[in-house]
Structure formats: C-alpha cells, structure tokens
Amino acid sequence: MKLNRHIKKLIVASTLALSVQVALASISFSGISDDKNKGNKYSLKNLSLLSHRTLSLSSMKLNLQFKGSDVLAQKATPTGLEINSLLYYNRGNTTYIMPYKFKVKVPKFKTPTAPVN
Fold first, then answer.
1. Which tens digit of pLDDT belongs to each residue from 53-69?
2. Phi and psi of 63, rounded to 5°?
3. What is the rounded CA–CA span in Å between residue 106 and residue 78?
C-alpha cells in the first residue's frame, strides 16, 4: 500500500515537471517576446542593408588555402576554348567551392608547308 502511494506521487511529480517544461517552451517559442521593436530585420526586403561589402575572390583568397580544381566542361570555339571548372578552398573544416569560367584564346596561324624546290 505504501509502495503504491509512492509510485502515484512519483508519477504526479514527473507529470508536473514535464508540464512546466512544456509550458515554458511554448511561451518562449510562441512569439510573446519583444518582436514588435525588432521588426522583421532578416527578411528579403532588408537584404541589401545587411551586406555592405561585396565578396570577391581576391579578398577571400587571403584567408583560404587552395586545395585543387576540377574541370566540368570544355567547349571549343573558333577563337579558342571555354572552360568551366570548380575551385576548392579550405579554411579549417569548411570547404568553399567556387565556379570559375575562363576562355583560352588561341591565335590563328598557318600550317607550315614544305618549301617548293
């Protein structure tokens, strides 16, 4: 009889503790915080205000270590080659993969012929 009473008290205490945790979690995630003053500052409307600096490959190369490249596609054109490739850079455990497209210009030349005797 005493054991049964202790089990009931344990069940009631654990249920009460669980319900308090659920209530606190729902209050913190329901939006009862100070959202009116913050507005929606991370929306797509305000994206240009968040990025004042432009990102360039030369500025990133200072902090990154080059790890290699892969050629995705080569396309022959009348003036040379167009090559699409990926450049791999590492900083710590983060790998940055950047697309890179360049053209190789080959000058036009005549095929040499044997001299006529």
1. 555 656 666 678 888 88
2. -100, -5
3. 9
Starting from the edge strand earliest in sequence, which strands make up the sheet with 94-105, in order? Answer: 65-77, 80-91, 94-105
Q: DSSP string spanning the chain?
A: -HHHHHHHHHHHHHHHHHHHHHHHHHHHHTT-SSHHHH--TTSSTTHHHH--SPP-HHHHHTT-EEEEEEEEEEEEETTEEEEEEEEEEEETTEEEEEEEEEEEE----PPP-PPP-
CA 32 to chain centre: 31
- Residue 90 pLDDT greater than 70, yes or no: yes
pLDDT at 86 over 60: yes
Write the single-letter amino acid at 113. Answer: T
- For residues 15-25, average pLDDT: 79
